[in-house]
Specification:
Elements: H1 3-38, E1 59-68, E2 84-87, E3 93-97, H2 101-104, E4 112-120, E5 131-139
Parallel strand pairs: 3-5
Antiparallel strand pairs: 1-2, 1-4, 2-3, 4-5
Length: 140
């Protein structure tokens, strides 16, 4: 194989790799934007069948899935930061606070749980209805 042919083949392979990486990047960005658009509504906003926002200072029990909370604006870079929360089936999310690290620390995201604790409202950079000061956790 002569040098010009080998160089042309290597250039073609390099161009194909760059195009594939570019296509994957565009697909990822489009998918990320679509998932952000779905999360734009406020978690406090009531929809049909949604539960009302609890009264501050009251003990509540919430059933849902452990998640990494989404920022309110839904935009910005994704980081390794994960503020744990619980998301109910109706889409309402709560931040979780606990004094005992063994309550939440070992529970992975995606785990179905029943959380009990005192509800408080809180201004947050995350899309949450409020904060639960956790007193008990039951894995479901």
């Amino acid at each position: 194989m002569n040098k010009k042919l080998r160089t042309a083949i290597l250039k073609a392979i390099l161009i194909i790799i760059v195009l594939i990486v570019g296509a994957i990047s565009v697909a990822y960005i489009i998918g990320w934007q679509n998932s952000s658009d779905a999360n734009q509504s406020s978690p406090i906003q009531q929809s049909e069948g949604a539960t009302a926002t609890p009264e501050a200072g009251k003990e509540i029990t919430v059933t849902g899935t452990i998640i990494c909370l989404q920022p309110k604006d839904g935009e910005g870079p994704h980081t390794l930061e994960c503020a744990l929360g619980v998301k109910q089936d109706d889409g309402v999310s709560y931040a979780l606070q606990h004094q005992d690290p063994s309550l939440i620390g070992s529970i992975p995201t995606g785990q179905a749980v029943k959380i009990t604790g005192k509800f408080t409202t809180q201004d947050s950079k995350y899309a949450i209805a409020g904060l639960i000061n956790v007193t008990s956790v039951e894995r479901l």
